[in-house]
């Protein structure tokens, strides 16, 4: 079986989680691994272990453990639902999946700022997963102002396949194309 690893790339409220859940329903034998779920779990049950400053190493370790289990102990397609905005980190992860025999797919959510702001304004999403910001508006503002040269959109050649979603209407088409990659006949 040709296993896929699908990585989402995008800012807060760009539709990554909604896309991942919809893809999971249509892509047989797939699993969504969403770091926001891990952050919420840690906040709910292990708040005293969360770092006060710096990177959330426990969240990353939990995610890595789940990913490695899925890679090594299952035959599932992986849908990695994180922001994945750092090119160096993306490339390192993709290299690992290629070594394991996966076909890689990047789905870049290049949604306009006004749509993101509208979604945030209407959102009922819990802010408990946030550690360094109080609101998703603050998260988006930080993401818009990022000057880090490594935070760049994916380009052709980073993965076996690249899909760019500029508008929510394109989601279903991309899902259909990914399912076809998994089952070409």
Description:
The protein is α/β, with parallel strands linked by helices and 185 residues long. It is 45% helix and 16% strand. The protein is built from seven helices and five strands, in the order E-H-E-H-H-E-H-E-H-H-E-H. Strands 2-3-1-4-5 form a five-stranded parallel β-sheet, sandwiched between helices. Helix 1 packs across helix 7 and helix 2 crosses helix 3. It is globular.
Q: SSE string, helix = H, strand = E?
A: EHEHHEHEHHEH
Rg on CA atoms, Å:
16 Å
Strand order of the largest sheet: 2-3-1-4-5
Mean pLDDT: 90
Oligomer: single chain
Amount of beta strand: 15-25%
Globular, elongated, flat, extended or rod-shaped: what is the shape? Answer: globular
Assign a percent range to the helix content: 40-55%
What's the helix count?
7
Which blocks of ≥5 consecutive residues have pLDDT under 50?
none
The tally of strands reads 5
Class computed from helices, strands and strand pairing: alpha/beta
For the largest beta-sheet, the strand count, sense and barrel status come to: 5 strands, parallel
Query: What gap, in angstroms, lies between the N and C termini?
Result: 13 Å
How is the secondary structure organized here?
Elements: E1 4-10, H1 16-26, E2 30-34, H2 35-45, H3 57-73, E3 77-81, H4 87-99, E4 103-109, H5 113-122, H6 136-145, E5 161-165, H7 171-182
Parallel strand pairs: 1-3, 1-4, 2-3, 4-5
């Amino acid at each position: 079986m040709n296993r896929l690893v699908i990585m989402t790339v995008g800012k807060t409220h760009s539709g990554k989680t909604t896309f991942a859940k919809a893809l999971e329903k249509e892509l047989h034998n797939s699993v969504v691994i969403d770091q926001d779920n891990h952050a919420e779990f840690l906040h709910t049950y292990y708040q005293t272990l969360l770092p006060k400053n710096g990177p959330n190493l426990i969240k990353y370790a939990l995610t890595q453990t789940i990913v490695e289990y899925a890679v090594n102990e299952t035959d599932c397609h992986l849908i990695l639902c994180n922001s994945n905005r750092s090119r160096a980190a993306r490339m390192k992860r993709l290299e690992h999946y290629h070594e394991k025999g996966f076909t890689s797919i990047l789905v870049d959510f290049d949604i306009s700022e006004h749509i993101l702001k509208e979604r945030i304004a209407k959102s009922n999403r819990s802010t408990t997963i946030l550690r360094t910001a109080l609101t998703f508006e603050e998260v988006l503002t930080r993401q818009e102002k990022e000057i880090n040269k490594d935070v760049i959109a994916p380009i052709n050649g980073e993965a076996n396949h690249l899909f760019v979603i500029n508008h929510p209407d394109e989601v279903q088409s991309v899902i259909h194309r990914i399912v076809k990659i998994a089952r070409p006949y």
